[in-house]
Design goal:
Order of helices and strands: HHHHHHHH
Largest sheet: none
Number of helices: 8
Shape: globular
């Protein structure tokens, strides 16, 4: 029995002594990659900085980001869009596709960031497919009086 325990210890020690392997394992702790974890850290630091900077600048900044609160987790996505950081947008929407909202598309479209609009669109489509959500159907409204009933 002690021989089996020593073999397990040696296996664990081998894994834990491999720095590259440990880094790969640790980067997925709590279900997120290092890239997403770094976005969270930057967001927390930014919140602290904005709270110290005063409320007037805070409200103006939130309005320009199409958000109402610094604690809205979409803040990270919106900031990445505004700063045209396509890789960050990709990491964030892969981590949490539900953060993609019409306001995210609006921010990207207003700034003409075609690559970011495409990333948002692809991940919205994929999210809907995976979760079996049907796309909304757009009803065409006819304004032709000949097709309307008369009164």
């Amino acid at each position: 029995m002690s021989l089996n325990h020593n073999m397990k210890s040696n296996g664990a020690q081998t894994v834990l002594s491999n720095n590259v392997l440990v880094a790969q394992i640790v980067c997925y702790q709590r279900g997120m990659t290092n890239a997403v974890r770094n976005e969270f850290r930057a967001w927390r630091a930014y919140i602290q900085e904005m709270q110290e900077g005063g409320m007037y600048s805070l409200f103006g900044m939130l309005r320009s980001m199409l958000l109402t609160s610094l604690t809205d987790p979409r803040f990270m996505l919106h900031q990445a869009i505004i700063e045209n950081r396509a890789n960050s947008v990709l990491h964030l929407v892969e981590y949490e596709p539900k953060w993609i909202t019409p306001s995210a598309f609006t921010l990207a479209r207003k700034r003409k960031f075609e690559d970011i609009v495409e990333i948002l669109h692809q991940h919205t489509t994929e999210y809907r497919r995976v979760h079996g959500i049907e796309p909304r159907k757009i009803l065409k409204v006819s304004h032709d009086k000949s097709q309307m009933g008369t009164q």
